[in-house]
Amino acid sequence: MLILPLRAFIFQTLLLLTSIAIEATIIHRQLNLSRLNSIQYATTLNLFSTVLGWLVFFITQSMISEAWRTQLISYILFTHLIWSGNEHSILIGLGTLGVIAFILSVLFEMQVLNVLKLLLAIQPEPINRHSKMYRYRRSMLRREQRDDNQELKVLLIANAYSYSAVLVLLTLILKENNILGYSQ
């Protein structure tokens, strides 16, 4: 029997749209890119990051213990955690996974951004080394090298904001389903 996790697809779409909107706004403001380019970069980075995340999930879920696998699948498919006296270790484990996912996604998105810049770069025309245009392009190249650090900072900030928003959404969903022990 095929189980279609429609709720998981819808929720993933909500999280992606939230992350894309937040990250595109920060990329637009901090890197001075157009709104369209910022949205395209944020969309591409988040889609690649999401695909990688799902691939990692499908590969690693077969390697983890049965208890953790049950918890993950129960939460992903049914938005429900199964408490069996080990709530503390589950919450610590989820927090640790969140931090690891954050760090890995920032590093991965930085690599994807570098690849995008290479793929979208326009090849410069050969020019005279003594011309003003050559000196200008050479200074711009140096500036681009300095901008790599700024791009990393911007991606770090953008991911921090989007992960915070995702954490708020996840907490609201968990609270709504009375998973965190809140009384209604």
What report would you give on this structure?
The protein has five helices and no strands. The chain has 184 residues and is mostly helical. It is 78% helix and 0% strand. The protein has helices at residues 6-31, 35-60, 66-78, 87-120, 132-176. It is elongated, with a radius of gyration of 21 Å. The chain has one domain.
Q: Provide the helix percentage.
A: over 70%
**Unreliable stretches, pLDDT < 50, 5 or more residues?**
122-127
Q: Biggest β-sheet: count, sense, barrel?
A: none
Count of all domains: 1
Q: How many beta-strand elements?
A: 0
Total count of helical runs of at least 4 residues: 5
Q: Which value, in Å, is the CA radius of gyration? A: 21 Å
Please state the average pLDDT score: 78
Ends apart, CA distance between termini: 35 Å
User: What's the overall geometry?
Assistant: elongated
Structural class: mainly alpha
Strand content: under 5%
Give the topology string: H per helix, E per strand.
Answer: HHHHH
Concise account of the structure shown:
The protein has one domain. It contains 5 helices and no strands. It has helices at residues 6-31, 35-60, 66-78, 87-120, 132-176.
What keywords describe this structure?
78% helix, 0% strand, 184 residues, mainly alpha
Question: Topology of this structure?
Answer:
Blueprint: H1 6-31, H2 35-60, H3 66-78, H4 87-120, H5 132-176
Helix pairs in contact: 1-2, 1-5, 2-4, 4-5
